[in-house]
Every structure is written in C-alpha cells, then in structure tokens.
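Structure ticket #2291
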Amino acid sequence: MTQSTKTVRLTREGYERLQRALDQEQARLAEATRILQEQMETSADSEDTGLEDAKREKMNIEARIDELEDTLSQATVIEDHENAGRVELGAIVVLNNETSKKETKVMVVSAPEAAVTGGSLPRVSEDSPVGKELMGRKKGEAFVVNLDNGKQMKYKVKSIEY
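Resolution: structure written out below.
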C-alpha cells in the first residue's frame, strides 16, 4: 500500500494532543500485550474467547498507534499566518448563527486534529461543511452552509484571532 506523503498542518496544541494520545496508546499497548501473555499462559482451550478478545484489542491499539505515528510524521506545526485578517488553520473564530442569534467560538483545524478529543475549544475541521465555507473569510463576512439534510445555516464572522 503506497501512500502519498501529504503534509498535515496542525496547531501547536493539536500536535501536543496527538503526541499525548500516542503516548497513551503505547501505554495501552504494553498493558494489552501483558494481558494477552497472561491469557495465552492460562488458556487451555485454543477457542477461548478471552484470548481472541485480547488479540483483537491489541490489533486495534496497534492500528491506532500506526495512524497516530503516520499523522505525526507528516505533521507541520502552524507557526505563522500569511493572511492575517482571514480565517486559516489555527484561527479562533467567533461565529454568529444568524438564525438562532447564538454566538459560538471555535478553532479551525485540519481533519486529523479535529478527530482527537480534548482541548479548550470546540474544533471545526477545514473539511467539514462549516470549515470549508469559513476558510479565507474576513471579519464581518456572512456565509451560508448547506447541510446534508437539505437545511441551510447562515453565519457571520464576528472576530478572528490567532
């Protein structure tokens, strides 16, 4: 399986959160390996479901570690913002939902970063419907997002900070 090396742009916080997730998964792998060893030593029956569950869990953790290592190896941490005043990755944006009149503060990030839990703000992926429409916008601009269910949401950019 050949993968093109695509750079993944991450915020400093996102990079550190992915690194912490990798460290946690590596600790989980060590524990899963220990449990699997115990299961193999105590299992008399090769059809033991506990043994199969332990093997499956270990494989899932290994796959997650591979995914995190791959993302981190392709990562570039966003330090400067070429288009000050416009929404880019790493921007903290206050959006006003023109329909509900509610304000929401979000951080615009890449898809791999949006997938990792934790962080101080809700994250919007640049690949999401809102993220796609938000990229490149300036303060004061309004835009419409077409949702999968056929509905539309109208937003206005209230502020942008980095």
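Closing remark: Strands lie at 8-10, 75-77, 92-97, 102-109, 123-125, 142-146, 152-161.
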